[in-house]
Specification:
Number of helices: 9
Strand content: 15-25%
Radius of gyration: 17 Å
CATH topology: Rossmann fold
Oligomer: single chain
Number of domains: 1
Order of helices and strands: EEEHEHEHEHHHHEEHH
CATH superfamily: Alpha/Beta hydrolase fold, catalytic domain
Number of strands: 8
CATH class: Alpha Beta
Strand order of the largest sheet: 1-2-4-3-5-6-7-8
Distance between the termini: 29 Å
């Protein structure tokens, strides 16, 4: 299996697992919490059929990557993305992030610039700044995140069940847009992640990306479901067109957070339209 070494913790290297398929313009898909690169299974074949080279990778602590106890801040996570870009010598790349993965895209462009990047896509985005503060009244109260961390520390498997129900709006979409089996698969992948990483990622969600956003100088597509229970659209997606030059927001009616699964057909059509291709 292919890995890229991005650091070291004590006596062990930190290895990021990746997959690299197809030929053509590269598309890097960056997954959301608490899943892995395999969660793009409804987008990967569409992109391959359209003639793209598609790279997925597992964030440190998740999937098949190493599970260190360090590096769950966005500067380090963007450094991991940069290691992938440099190791594979990717040029003219389309960066696609989902949920927590949108933070890597934004921080990468803020720290490393767009020399290797053609366009960007932010799906169910975490920027601009999720925490409610005096100068960010649209954010979410700190107590919400304190409660999440307490729930993870107390009973991570039970927390994942609750989280994934809201991730997919199972009470509304279960049995139609998501099966019990697909939900069980997501739980299994999430439960296999590092317990430390699952907890350590929560403070990263409160990263302030407002200084990064003006540095984004590539065309950017933002897509979010208007029924997202994980990242409120009024706190996140709807704010971004005013903060990122040359960007536009497309809302998916009734879409939960995990639109890449529950609304894959709609999302794929929007994504391929942005790329100038037709989904097939």
């Amino acid at each position: 299996m292919p890995y890229i070494t991005t650091g070291e913790e004590n006596s062990a290297g930190i290895h990021v697992y990746y997959e690299d398929h197809g030929v053509g313009q590269p598309v890097v898909l960056i997954h959301g919490f608490p899943l892995s690169g395999a969660s793009w299974e409804k987008q990967l074949p569409v992109l391959l059929r359209a003639g793209y080279r598609v790279i997925t990778y597992d964030r440190r602590g998740f999937g098949r990557s190493s599970q260190p106890t360090t590096g769950y801040d966005y500067d380090t996570l963007a450094t991991d993305l940069n290691a992938v870009m440099e190791k594979l010598d990717l040029q003219n790349t389309i960066l696609v992030g989902f949920s927590m993965g949108t933070g890597e895209v934004v921080r990468y462009l803020g720290n490393y610039g767009s020399a290797r990047v053609d366009r960007a896509v932010l799906i169910a985005p975490i920027p601009p700044f999720l925490l409610k503060t005096g100068d960010n009244p649209e954010g979410v109260d700190q107590s919400v995140f304190d409660g999440i961390m307490s729930a993870i520390a107390s009973d991570r498997p039970a927390y994942l069940t609750t989280f994934l129900h809201d991730f997919n709006n199972v009470d509304k979409l279960g049995g139609t847009r998501i099966s019990d089996e697909a939900l069980r698969l997501q739980w299994t992948v999430a439960a296999g992640a590092s317990a430390h990483a699952t907890l350590a990622c929560v403070p990263a969600w409160l990263t302030d990306f407002r200084d990064d956003l003006p540095r984004i100088d590539v065309e950017t597509l933002i897509v979010q479901g208007d029924a997202d229970r994980i990242l409120p659209i009024d706190s996140c997606g709807r704010r971004l067109p005013g903060l990122i030059k040359n960007s536009r927001l497309v809302e998916i009616p009734g879409g939960p957070h995990n639109i890449g699964w529950t609304h894959a057909e709609e999302l794929n059509a929007i994504l391929m339209g942005f790329l100038g291709r037709t989904a097939s």
